[in-house]
Amino acid sequence: MAVSGCMDNEPEVNATMNQTPTPTPTQAFPVLENTTVYVKIMGTEFIPISYNVKNGTTVKWTNEDSAQYILNVDGISSPPLNKRDSWNYTFYRTGTFEYNLSNNSKMQKGRIIVE
Predict the structure, then answer these.
(1) CA gyration radius for the chain?
(2) N or C end of the chain, less CB within 10 A?
């Protein structure tokens, strides 16, 4: 009768190997199909700051700050956005569209690049 021992020979797995990297606020986040993408207004910045999207994509901005903001994009202004309020806009033209807050001129502009 043979007895075999069981040894733990499995390689050690690094827990960070399977995690998706989070884009930094200055990095463009690519979107490969038209869908809805989300931007947070938080800590006087847009998160993420930029998206590369397909024509027909909707962008939904949500105010996570306590201040009230009005968002300006493509010549259109949102209604006043209080904390946790959202507003969305669908891009039906290709091009580069910058957006900002009308009552926070110091905040870096966000950008949507529609292909």
Answers:
(1) 21
(2) N
